[in-house]
Specification:
Strand content of chain B: 25-35%
Structural class of chain A: alpha+beta
Number of strands of chain A: 11
Number of domains of chain A: 2
CATH superfamily of the largest domain in chain B: Probable tRNA modification gtpase trme, domain 1
Oligomer: heterodimer
CATH class of the largest domain in chain A: Alpha Beta
Distance between the termini of chain A: 47 Å
CATH topology of the largest domain in chain B: Gyrase A, domain 2
Helix content of chain B: 10-25%
CATH architecture of the largest domain in chain A: 2-Layer Sandwich
Number of helices of chain B: 25
Largest interface: A-B, 55 and 53 residues
Shape of chain B: elongated
Order of helices and strands of chain A: EEEHEEEHEEHEEEH
Number of domains of chain B: 6
Strand order of the largest sheet of chain A: 1-2-8-11-10-9
Largest sheet of chain B: 7 strands, mixed
Largest sheet of chain A: 6 strands, antiparallel
CATH superfamily of the largest domain in chain A: Probable tRNA modification gtpase trme, domain 1
CATH class of the largest domain in chain B: Alpha Beta
Shape of chain A: globular
Chain lengths: 191, 1005
């Protein structure tokens, strides 16, 4: 079978006030169910190795993790190649309980935004308070980027990762480039 | 004449002279000038013509309230009309032209209107152009359009870029004058996160011009101290050149930032629209001086008194050698004093008041030797394009001239009105303050937030405090109150500074000058400069029965120009109140709506232009399609290939080729855009039985079923094939445009009505690339790829199976929208292109060709399959389309069932689906109507049907169509008449809608 390719295959933009990179495919599982149930908590911990996130939280460790998406939805993140095994683990644990786990890895495009102006590039496009105190690493926002849905989180103080739907990868890349255009520093979020 | 003087000009950088042009004339100014100050420095007092009478108009103000000095700025891609000279910062190469004149500013033909002004009263257009009726559209309107209007529309695409920025804070302070700075300091010291916005490029507002002392130091050094203290604070964001444009519910505020207007061509966006969420808003927006209503108050050279002072102090510009000051208050004396101290002449101050004793400022003026005439007024100003003299009269009289004073400028002051716009945008109420003769914010009725408490507080002059000491105390107290309600605590050592007290004697309200001005004077007394509304117009409106201020505004156009009545509002409604013999507060104000001052369309659009104007959705095979001749069709936000045109081939020929090839060999369709929604849970079957008109719960795992979805009103909203994956899981295919909509539809029912049903849904549309392999050779192609059994026995029609084809993990659905042997194969999107390539290779010697949406449409129309959006338009129910077979009679309920039983839905005269075939083989025009006998009550032909889909079928070699026709299914063989928009009448026979392979043998092999 052919190697899976991302929508933009590693496109980058480095001329602006923040660096934009289209990342290789990563594994993503959308999980809906009772987030307090042990048949969900146990396999999630087993698969990701991290604790359950708080509301609007994301716990990540070495490329694996879990993000809170809604009161009954999580996003599991991990290596692309592990998705099938992880789904199996989940289905086994869920058994006859009511929950839904689906692979959405190919439905998404993933970007990294980095540099000291990362927070303001995001704030130009999303109605989100991206200030350091309101949006620290470990938190995620499921929101919109201009006219399309997106979610993003901070990897460190100046680096964000962002997911959107695959079909709008080019639009989102162009949006991020526009928001990061040279000379557009807002100098709002003080370091 | 107006000119630059040797002293003053605190905002200028005199070491940097810049050149600019006005109406083609090259002029010079300094960095720090506004366009208005630079024009005045060049003795360019005449800057435009008024809207209606084309009267010469000069600069009146020094800020955003300016009604006259509107310019066309820039050229080409940077051309913009209606830019205020008073808020435009000067830069080298600025290119301005005046507006609303023909043929030139100096000589304007339209000025003849002023001699006709007796015939152009309020409501003139309504009265004059009503008869005869057709004349409005064909005669009056085109002529008026030509002569009216301010500025020109830009012709080229905007050369600049724009952006939005979302910001959040505890306290947003709008206005960076002394009040705003003091409020910011107080809020910030309490620990609140503060944003402070100032519309100009400078901090401190009017204070530096008006003077005074704070804690023994000059007010300018006090401002400098505040600015440096605030700049050093981590929790404060200070922004100049950002105007607070509008206040909206939930503490939402729009700020309008000028980034490169003063430096065109610089890198980065031109404007930034700040979208701010604030815990609380403080409007420290200051006050605007009111003009006085006297005859000739619109002649160039008549200016607001404070503006005269601003030009002198800020820009070192004298607006005239001899300036008569006319006032009803003490503040204008500051202008007389400043002008005199600058070495220029003030021949007289005409003070409408008669004071028992001299006020402090009056005494100071007299000390300087200025002649003060109490109880006096302007009877009229003489001059054409420039003031030449003032005729003096008694304020109490009717305007008999006592004396004529030669002068070239008049500085007028009718008192000050707090800028209450932002306070009022979201419902803040106003109260009439008789002492100040103005409306000010009513602290007991602020705009109310979601918690029932006010979320806007006015501070300083915006709250009605006009002395420096009062302003500082009020700003401090306002901020203290705000941060306390937000849960912060002000350190005890943070107290309000004290300013030197300057006693002022109250003003006397003067709404007409002189008090008993006769009609001749009133006809020359302007209220609204831009729209040419005079005192006589408002009085006429009152006389004609207009009592509501909102109606009077619209009848007279008072305050309806681009300045939105910043100068005219209070004077206008006071005039109306006077004419109605009513109190000013009972007449009230018109509504204040955002934006405070016009903002650019570019800023509103933000980043959404060019490539990112709208999201464009691409399938995993998008680039392949583009490289292989795709003629694109927009479907929702997707782009789908309409056809794949070969070199030299027309689109029509390509479509015909694709149809024929698919029917004889095989075709590939990129069906990735079709919606795919997973529905899972113990109640999934029950849920789908409610959503679809037919029974889904009885579907066996491994099988597929076509279903229809209706809204609760019974109308068809979507269709598609449902596959049952296992006992608890279904996969619902939707139309391309329906994917997101139907997903939301499902979530809505699950979250609001059936929240206790155990069902989860997930939209997995984009997880898969889905390719339809269609045609007699389809199976051979898949067998060539190999890996799984795709024979009729292993995978029958309307079945699905998981497997591996040519090394690709896939799910194959044996479904057909073409009537041919057809497999729809879903693979992970990441390998979609590779799988497509593999199919193209495998199909190479089987005659494979990709086909587009038009071919898809023809294939389905030949089979009589309906298309959502063609055969449906939101008013069509399944029964209209002969789809009764897909409506369960066994089910107790489904969405739309009850609606479909209503009388209109079961009406036998509803138009029904039939096939249509032209008698001569031509193709019916799309959307054409069939005409019946007779006419309706509007004398139009009666309609008895319409075309919903129409194509040329290469398979059948003739035009085929579907349509909805009155009693259609009962009229088989009848020929209907369809008049086309091309003048021809098409004749078409009613036939069965299935044109091809009615038995379905081809798809079931």
């Amino acid at each position: 079978m052919s190697e899976p390719i991302s929508a933009l295959q590693g496109a980058t933009y480095t001329q602006g006030i923040a660096e934009i990179t289209a990342l290789d495919p990563i594994g993503m599982i959308s999980l809906r169910g009772d987030l307090t149930a042990s048949y969900l908590k146990k396999p999630v911990k087993k698969i990701t190795g991290v604790a359950m996130p708080e509301v609007r939280g994301i716990n990540l460790d070495a490329g694996k993790g879990v993000a809170w998406m809604s009161p009954d939805e999580l996003l599991l993140i991990g290596p692309y190649a592990d998705v099938a095994t992880n789904l199996e683990t989940l289905h086994k644990a869920i058994g006859s309980n009511h929950a839904l786990a689906v692979n959405v890895s190919d439905a998404r495009a993933v970007f990294r935004v980095s540099g000291v102006h990362t927070r303001e590039v995001l704030a130009k496009l999303a109605p989100v308070d991206t200030s350091r105190d309101a949006f620290a690493p470990g938190t995620i926002r499921r929101t919109r980027l201009a006219q399309v849905p997106a979610a993003f989180w901070m990897i460190d103080d100046d680096t964000a990762e962002l997911v959107c739907f695959r079909s709008v990868a080019q639009y989102v890349f162009d949006l991020l480039k526009t928001a990061a255009q040279p000379g557009s520093e807002v100098n709002y979020h003080r370091g | 004449m107006s000119t630059r003087i040797a002293t003053g000009g605190r905002l200028l950088n005199k070491s940097n002279a810049v050149s600019f042009s006005f109406n083609g004339k090259q002029l010079r100014g300094y960095e720090g000038d506004t366009l208005a100050s630079a024009l005045l420095a060049n003795d360019q007092m005449l800057v435009g013509r008024s809207f209606k009478y084309h009267r010469p108009r000069g600069i009146v103000a020094a800020g955003p309230e300016e009604p006259n000095a509107l310019m066309n700025l820039g050229r080409g891609g940077r051309f913009e009309p209606n830019q205020r000279a008073t808020t435009t910062e000067l830069f080298d190469g600025l290119d301005a032209t005046s507006q609303n004149h023909w043929p030139s500013l100096e000589f304007d033909m339209g000025a003849i209107n002023k001699h006709l002004s007796r015939f152009l009263p309020a409501g003139f257009y309504y009265k004059m152009f009503i008869h005869p009726r057709p004349f409005w559209k064909h005669v009056y309107e085109p002529i008026i359009r030509h002569s009216a209007g301010l500025g020109k529309a830009p012709k080229e695409q905007d050369a600049d870029s724009y952006e939005h920025f979302h910001a959040f804070c505890d306290v947003l302070i709008i206005g960076g004058g002394v009040a705003g700075l003091e409020a910011a300091r107080t809020a910030a010291r309490a620990g609140a996160k503060v944003i402070l916005l100032e519309q100009t490029a400078h901090w401190g507002g009017r204070a530096a011009v008006d003077g005074g002392a704070v804690e023994e130091a000059s007010v300018t050094s006090h401002i400098d101290g505040l600015v440096s203290e605030l700049s050093a604070m981590e929790n404060v964001q200070m922004r100049t050149r950002v105007m607070g444009a509008g206040v909206y519910d939930h503490g939402y505020v729009l700020g309008y930032e000028h980034l490169t207007d003063h430096a065109p061509g610089a890198q980065g966006p031109r404007h930034r629209l700040w979208r701010i969420r604030a815990g609380h808003i403080i409007t420290a927006t200051g006050a605007i001086e009111r003009p006085l209503s006297f005859a000739g108050n619109d002649i160039p050279g008549v200016m607001l008194a404070a503006a005269v002072r601003d030009y002198l102090v800020n820009f070192g510009v004298s607006v005239g050698d001899r300036t008569v000051v006319v006032t009803n208050n003490d503040d204008a004396y500051r202008t007389a004093i400043a002008v005199t101290e600058a070495g220029l002449n003030v021949p007289a101050i005409l003070d409408a008041r008669v004071l028992p004793e001299d006020s402090t400022l009056m005494a100071r003026a007299k000390e300087l030797g200025i002649r003060v005439l109490m109880g006096h007024a302007v009877s009229s100003v003489t001059g054409g394009k420039r003031v030449t003299a003032v005729n003096v009269c008694s304020q109490a009289g009717e305007g008999a001239v006592l004396e004529t004073i030669d002068c070239d400028a008049v500085a007028m002051s009718g008192g000050w009105s707090p800028v209450v716009h932002l306070w009022s945008h979201c419902g803040g109420k106003l109260v009439w303050d008789a002492r100040l003769a103005t409306f000010r914010p009513d602290v007991n009725h602020p705009p109310i937030g979601a918690d029932g408490h006010g979320f806007v507080t006015a501070a300083g002059a915006a709250a009605g405090f006009f002395s420096l000491d009062d302003i500082l105390h009020d700003a401090h107290a306002a901020a203290d109150g705000v941060v306390t309600t937000l849960g912060f605590k002000l350190p005890v050592d943070v107290v309000s500074p004290n300013a030197e007290r300057q006693e002022e004697t109250p003003l006397a309200p003067v709404w007409m000058m002189p008090h008993g001005a006769n009609v001749k004077l009133r006809e020359k007394t302007w209220l609204d400069y831009q729209n040419d509304v005079k005192v006589s117009d408002v009085r006429l409106a009152a006389q004609e029965g207009f009592v509501s201020v909102e109606h009077t505004k619209r009848y007279t156009t008072l305050g309806m120009a681009t300045d939105q009545g910043k100068l005219s509002n209070i004077n206008g409604l006071a005039t109306l109140a006077g004419a109605l013999d009513a109190d000013i507060p009972t007449v009230g104000t018109t509504t204040f709506r955002p934006p405070y001052h016009p903002i650019s369309m570019g800023a509103i659009g933000g980043e959404a232009r060019g490539d990112v104007f709208q999201p464009l959705r691409r399938t995993p095979m998008h680039d392949w399609h583009a490289a292989n001749g795709a003629e694109w069709e927009p479907v929702g936000h997707w782009r789908r290939p309409y056809s794949y045109n070969r070199p030299g081939e027309t689109t029509h020929d390509a479509v015909m080729r694709e149809v024929t090839n698919t029917r004889t060999n095989m075709g590939l369709l990129d069906a990735s855009t079709l919606g795919k929604i997973i529905v899972k849970g113990p109640d999934a079957g029950k849920f789908l039985d409610m959503l679809y008109t037919n029974m889904m719960s009885s579907l066996k795992p491994g099988k597929c079923r076509y279903g229809l979805m209706c809204s609760e009103n019974g109308f068809l909203i979507d269709d598609g094939v449902v596959a049952r994956i296992d006992d608890d899981t279904f996969l619902c295919h939707t139309t391309t445009g329906g994917a997101d909509r139907i997903h939301q539809h499902m979530e809505e029912w699950l979250q609001t009505e059936w929240w206790d049903w155990q069902v989860y849904v997930a939209n997995v549309t984009e997880q898969y690339a889905q390719i339809a392999v269609v045609g007699p050779n389809a199976r051979k192609c898949l067998e060539k790829l190999g890996g799984m059994d795709v024979s009729k026995d292993a995978l029958g029609f309307m079945e699905w199976v998981d497997g591996e084809l040519g090394g690709f993990k896939c799910r194959i659905y044996r479904i057909s929208f073409s009537g041919e042997l057809s497999y729809e194969i879903a693979v992970d999107a990441g390998v979609g292109q590779a799988f497509w390539d593999a199919l193209m290779v495998a199909g190479n010697d089987l005659g494979v060709m990709p086909y587009g949406t038009e071919c898809l449409h023809i294939l389905r129309a030949e089979k009589g399959f309906i298309m959502i959006g063609d055969e449906t338009d939101g008013t069509v129910i399944p029964q209209d389309l002969g789809l009764n077979w897909a409506i369960s009679k066994k089910k107790e309920d489904y969405l739309g069932k009850r609606a479909q039983q209503r009388s209109h839905m079961v009406d036998p005269t509803r138009w029904k689906l039939v096939g249509l075939e032209t008698t001569d083989g031509s193709t019916l025009p799309d959307g054409a109507y069939a005409v019946g006998e007779g006419v309706n009550e509007n004398d139009q032909s009666n309609m008895i049907g319409r075309v919903t889909s129409t194509y040329h079928s290469p398979t059948l070699g003739k035009g085929i169509a579907m349509g909805l026709v009155l009693n259609g299914p009962d009229r088989m063989g009848e020929v209907l008449e369809f008049p086309g928009t091309d003048g021809k009448i098409y004749h078409a026979k009613i036939v069965d809608p299935v044109f091809y392979d009615k038995e379905g043998e081809k798809q079931n092999v």
